[in-house]
Amino acid sequence: MKPDGTLGWSAISAYLDTLASADPTPGGGAAAAVTAAQGAALFSMVCNLTIGKKKFADVEHEIRLILDQCETARRQMLNLGDRDMEVFGTIMEVYKMPKTTPEEAEARRAAIQYALRASSEVPFELFRRCIAMLPIADRLEQIANPSVLSDVFVGRYLLVAGLLSAKANVEVNLDSIDDDAFCEAKRTAMREALDGLEENCRRLVGR
C-alpha cells in the first residue's frame, strides 16, 4: 500500500477498476469469491489478535486450529475466483463453435451443456465453503478477543453475502442446463444448507 496507508492506491483499487471496466472478467463470480475471502481474512485477524494473550490462554490451541482453517479457506476461495474466470472463458469459447450443419449444432449444444455444468460447480463449491465457515463465526463470537467482536460480525456478513452471491451464480447456470436431475440435486443441496439461515440473518440484523 501507499505510505499514507490509503486504499485508493492499493491492489484493491486496481482490482475494483478492473471489476468496473467493460471486461466481463472478473465479474460477479470472482467478486463473490473475494467477498467471502474477506470474511475468512477477518476471522484470521480476530484469531491473530487473540493468540498470545494470557486472558485467552485456555483457548489458544483451539484458536490456532481455527486460524489454520481460515487461512486455508481464504486461499481456496480466491482460487475459486480464478477458476470462475477460467470457466467463463471456456463458455465464451464454446458459444463461438460453428453450427452450420446439424452435426456441428449438436456438438456445440453438447459442449455448451458440459461447460455450463462445469461452470455451475465453481460457485456451488464457493457456496459450500461459505456455509462451512459460518460455525467458525459462532465459535469466535464465544471465545475470541471481545475487543474485535465487531470484526467477527462483519466477517459473518461477508460470508453470507458471498454464499448468497454464489447461490445466485449457480442458479443462473442451472437455468440453462438441460439435465433436470443435475439441477434438482444442486437446488436441493443449497436449499437444505440454507435451512435456518434466514432466521439467523434476521437475528444478526437486529443486533
Structural notes for this entry:
The protein has helices spanning 11-20, 28-48, 60-95, 102-143, 149-174, 180-193, 197-205. With 207 residues, the chain is mainly α. It has one domain (10-205): Four Helix Bundle (Hemerythrin (Met), subunit A) (Up-down Bundle). The radius of gyration is 20 Å and the shape is elongated. The chain starts with 10 loop residues before the first helix and ends with a helix.
In a few lines, what is going on in this structure?
By secondary structure, the chain is mostly helical. Helices cover 76% and strands 0% of the residues.
Q: Which radius of gyration do the C-alpha atoms yield?
A: 20 Å
Largest sheet: none
What is the structural class? mainly alpha
> What is the domain tally?
1
Protein name: Cyclodeaminase/cyclohydrolase family protein
GO molecular function, one term: hydrolase activity
Keywords: Hydrolase
Organism: Chlorobaculum thiosulfatiphilum (Chlorobium limicola f.sp. thiosulfatophilum)
Labels describing this entry:
207 residues, mainly alpha, Four Helix Bundle (Hemerythrin (Met), subunit A), 7 helices, 0% strand, elongated
List the helices and strands and how they pair.
Blueprint (H helix, E strand, L loop, with lengths): L10 H10 L7 H21 L11 H36 L6 H42 L5 H26 L5 H14 L3 H9 L2
Keywords: Hydrolase
InterPro entries: Cyclodeamin/CycHdrlase, Formintransfe-cycloase-like_sf
Protein name: Cyclodeaminase/cyclohydrolase family protein
